[in-house]
């Protein structure tokens, strides 16, 4: 039976209790012989997993959260509700909350939190909108579901109704109440790479095979004589001293041959493969495949490609979740991605100048972008002295025509 069939089967029974770790075990199947057990936490030991999660969470958490509504067809910014400023209370601001929740979404496909406070504004479920959401660890959550409908959450041994729990999910498929876990489906790749990493560590620490062999070429020695020779050799070389022996002893180091062990190739392949599972281009986490190169005209173009192809859809889904569950209609939430698309100073100046020339941006608006106040008449006069006085030719309509 395929891994996906097993996951679906886990939800076919009524009131099935499912934990994040159980889903991971189901998708991985019963595999033995490995020295590494991949879970949502142990996967973080892999540098590519860590880098992908960090990059995506860093970028999402750095995007300003803005709330808007439309007035006469124009988008107008309105004050944010407290839950989009300090969602986890006074000690947990929106940036930390976004970072933590994005890490869980990207590694497990789900994030959970307990709604501990509600506002007086009634939401679509006829309850007060959440005013505080305390995120909880994935390992503390179990889910009871009937088919695709979640009936109960059990967090730390306490049962909660679905409306008392904040649940976002990504990587969704029809008929599943939970999002799919990239760690679960990438478990084989992560496990292979972590095993190679552990093999390299054990090898160079002398734990995988003996570091060297000391052989007597003149005669056969028993176990007691071998122990004495070993102790004498070790006592000499461990302090950097000389080891004196006759012509019947031979010392032969045993060295790792990278092409034979193949762990370097395995680890290099694992970097790019894991990058694909976690939605990050390999070159953005320094895991580009040797021999391949991707060039971009500017850093802005590279970031735009990453936003459109990888991060943008996840950001859009989070905007929908915040709009639907945290703000009263007709307001809507936007995560401002402008910070990700910042241009270099020269390109930015050209763009702004073009917008002013084409009458789509006023000089005052352009200065506001750089947090500068509009020009005063004194400043205008100084520009006139430098570049010449402004000239305006008034236009008047002709009052008559001469024949």
Would you kindly provide a written description of the structure presented here, covering whatever features stand out?
With 403 residues, this protein is of the alpha+beta class. The protein folds into 3 domains: 220 residues, no CATH class; 72 residues, no CATH class; 45 residues, no CATH class. 40% of the residues lie in helices and 18% in strands. Helix 3 crosses helix 4, helix 3 runs parallel beside helix 9 and helix 6 packs antiparallel against helix 9.
Coarse shape: flat
C-alpha end-to-end distance: 97 Å
What is the total domain count?
Answer: 3
Level of helix content? Answer: 40-55%
Largest sheet: 4 strands, antiparallel
Number of helices: 13
Q: Evaluate the radius of gyration.
A: 32 Å
Give, in spatial order, the strands making up the sheet with the most strands. Answer: 1-6-7-8
Work out the strand percent: 15-25%
Tell me briefly what this model is.
With 403 residues, the protein is α+β, with helices and mostly antiparallel strands. Helices cover 40% and strands 18% of the residues. The protein folds into three domains: 3-185 and 280-316, no CATH class; 193-264, no CATH class; 344-388, no CATH class.
Summary keywords:
403 residues; alpha+beta; 12 strands; 3 domains; 4-stranded antiparallel sheet; flat; 3-stranded antiparallel sheet; 40% helix
């Amino acid at each position: 039976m395929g891994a996906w069939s097993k996951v679906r089967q886990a939800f076919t029974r009524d009131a099935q209790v499912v934990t994040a770790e159980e889903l991971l075990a189901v998708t991985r199947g019963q595999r033995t012989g490995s020295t590494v057990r991949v879970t949502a936490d142990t996967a973080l030991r892999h540098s590519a997993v860590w880098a992908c999660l960090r990059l995506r969470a860093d970028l999402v958490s750095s995007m300003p959260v803005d709330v808007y509504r439309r007035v006469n067809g124009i988008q107008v910014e309105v004050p944010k509700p407290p839950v989009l400023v300090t969602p986890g209370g006074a000690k947990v601001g929106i940036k930390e909350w976004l970072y933590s929740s994005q890490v869980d979404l990207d590694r497990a496909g789900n994030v959970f939190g307990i709604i501990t406070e509600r506002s007086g504004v009634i939401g679509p479920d006829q309850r007060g909108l959440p005013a505080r959401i305390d995120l909880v660890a994935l390992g503390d959550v179990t889910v009871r579901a009937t088919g695709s409908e979640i009936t109960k959450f059990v967090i730390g041994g306490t049962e909660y109704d679905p409306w008392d729990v904040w649940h976002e999910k990504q990587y969704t498929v029809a008929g599943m109440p939970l999002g799919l876990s990239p760690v679960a489906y990438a478990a084989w790749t992560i496990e292979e790479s972590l095993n190679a990493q552990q093999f390299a560590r054990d090898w160079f620490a002398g734990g995988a095979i003996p570091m060297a062999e000391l052989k007597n070429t003149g005669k056969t020695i028993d176990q007691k004589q071998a122990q004495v020779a070993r102790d004498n050799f070790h006592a000499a070389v461990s302090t950097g001293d000389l080891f004196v022996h006759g012509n019947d002893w031979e010392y032969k180091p045993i060295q790792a041959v990278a092409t034979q062990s193949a762990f370097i190739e395995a680890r290099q392949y694992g970097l790019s493969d894991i990058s694909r599972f976690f939605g990050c281009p390999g070159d953005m986490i320094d895991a580009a495949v040797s021999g391949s190169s991707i060039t971009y005209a500017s850093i802005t173009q590279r970031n735009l490609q990453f936003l459109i192809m990888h991060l943008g859809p996840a950001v859009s889904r989070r905007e929908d979740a915040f709009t639907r569950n945290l703000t009263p209609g007709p307001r809507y939430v936007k995560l401002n991605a402008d910070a990700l698309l910042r241009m270099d100073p020269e390109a930015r100046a050209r763009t702004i100048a073009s917008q002013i020339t084409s009458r789509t941006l006023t000089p005052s608006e352009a200065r506001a972008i750089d947090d500068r106040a509009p020009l005063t008449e004194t400043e205008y006069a100084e520009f006139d002295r430098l570049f010449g006085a402004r000239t305006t030719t008034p236009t008047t309509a002709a009052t008559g025509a001469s024949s």
